[in-house]
Design goal:
By secondary structure, the protein is α+β, with helices and mostly antiparallel strands. The protein is built from 11 helices and 17 strands. Strands 3, 7, 9, 10 and 11 form a 5-stranded antiparallel sheet that branches. The protein has a 3-stranded antiparallel sheet with strand order 1-2-8. α2 runs parallel beside α5 and α4 packs across α7. The longest helix has 22 residues.
């Protein structure tokens, strides 16, 4: 008997208003390098095209070699536009049709020379199989490199957002992502250099009708695989990131992202093993704690895979299984804390950040230059200032309104006091 199809891939009944198919994100960008992330609609062979001349509305022809230079034809004038760089790449379903161009990699560096500081570059994607443009021609795709280190002082201006939840919890046909359009105007008005996504860039369980954990609970006896679960998380990203205003911010500004609980599960890491199992139990079931926890851990692996695929791959490069990272931009220093990768409420010490991350944070602090007078930023997806500890502890004990996991997420909850003092 054939296994039941448990994937969400292209499931028509998923109530997405703007499903992401083709899109781009500008990732980690310096004065001389960048990361560009793409998602295409289908498997195939493509070319990233980078130009110092605008492409939108001017080009329809394929990139061609003219001598040693790649060029495209300027349709209105008939003249050729010499391109800054062209890079071939393939996408397959193995990466959900995504690809990240990292111009720091030696193999790419041979094809993409160093960028000039504080310069606008335009980019697009050409489909070689179908001989058509996928991105960059109908809507402008561009980014601006950062100032060269040592050429300060600078104004430090960046955007910060979190908790992207545009869907109406009571109606699957209603959604509002208009704040992204307002944010883009503010970013442009204030000459923002980049944008920080401070957690919960998507919600896997934000509404009943989009809750993939509710789906797991419903079909868990069908024995879903990690590959099935990956399709559910990918589906969430495609639904939450498909709004035009969201895509506009993604494709124009360097984006630095860090996950929080809703990329995995509400309150992930703030449950005991028994409580985590309870989240997957129906009221009429006899509890099988080990099986439920095994399923939850599979979901975490799938969530991590999707996070790497859609978010962390265009952050500054880190060693495998490390998601905290540092940054130096425009005279300021940044440390992005990972508060979900190793979080475990049952650990008596360092249950949020873990000992290894705290050591990296300590080393980063020691190495901060005493000669720099710019600001220092630490990105924490849970606010450092919250309810008073006695209120948090009482709410946890009472589990008021089912908010125990939210209370335990707070830094000032009694269980985290030593780690909070260390931080």
């Amino acid at each position: 008997m054939a296994k039941k199809d448990l994937t969400f891939y292209n499931r028509k009944e998923r109530p997405w208003l703007n499903r992401l198919d083709r899109s781009a994100i500008v990732g980690h960008t310096t004065a001389t390098n960048t990361k560009l992330w793409f998602r295409l609609k289908k498997q195939g062979n493509y070319q990233v095209v980078i130009s110092q001349t605008p492409l939108r509305g001017l080009v329809s022809t394929a990139p061609t070699l003219k001598g040693d230079d790649w060029v495209v034809k300027n349709d209105p004038t008939g003249k050729h536009i010499t391109l800054f760089a062209v890079v071939d790449f393939d996408v397959t379903g193995a990466t959900d049709f995504t690809f990240t161009l990292n111009t720091e990699l030696p193999a790419i560096k041979r094809l993409v020379p160093d960028f000039q500081a504080e310069t606008c570059y335009y980019y697009g994607v050409f489909n070689r199989d179908d001989s058509c443009w996928e991105l960059g021609i109908e809507k402008e795709h561009c980014f601006t490199t950062l100032p060269q280190d040592g050429n300060g002082p600078w104004d430090v201006a960046f955007g910060l957002y979190s908790c992207h939840m545009p869907f109406d919890p009571n109606c699957s046909s209603k959604a509002d992502a208009s704040m992204w359009g307002i944010m883009e105007e503010e970013l442009r008005f204030n000459n923002a250099r980049f944008v920080i996504g401070g957690g919960d860039q998507v919600y896997v369980d934000g509404t009943d009708y989009l809750n993939i954990w509710a789906w797991l609970k419903k079909i868990k006896k069908e024995k879903p695989t990690i590959e099935d679960m990956k399709s559910w998380y990918r589906d969430i990203y495609r639904g939450y990131w498909g709004f035009p205003n969201v895509k506009a911010v993604h494709r124009h500004y360097p984006n630095y992202m860090i996950w929080d609980d809703h990329e995995i599960m509400d309150g992930w890491g703030s449950y005991t093993k028994e409580e985590l199992s309870d989240e997957l139990d129906s009221w009429f079931e006899w509890e099988d704690e080990d099986k439920n926890v095994e399923l939850a851990n599979k979901m975490f692996k799938a969530a991590k895979h999707a996070y790497l695929e859609y978010q962390h791959c265009h952050n500054p490069t880190t060693p495998k299984n490390q998601y905290d990272y540092t940054l130096e931009q425009c005279g300021a220093d940044y440390f992005f804390l990972d508060m979900r990768g190793v979080r475990n409420f049952e650990n008596k010490q360092n249950g949020i950040l873990g000992a290894d991350q705290l050591r990296r944070l300590s080393k980063w602090i020691e190495n901060l230059s005493a000669e720099k007078d710019g600001p220092i930023f630490v990105v924490s997806t849970v606010p450092m200032v919250h309810l008073k500890d006695f209120v948090s502890d009482t709410l946890d004990w009472l589990s008021v309104f089912g908010a125990r996991d939210d209370v335990r997420d707070h830094w000032e909850q009694d269980h985290h006091k030593d780690e909070f003092k260390t931080l």
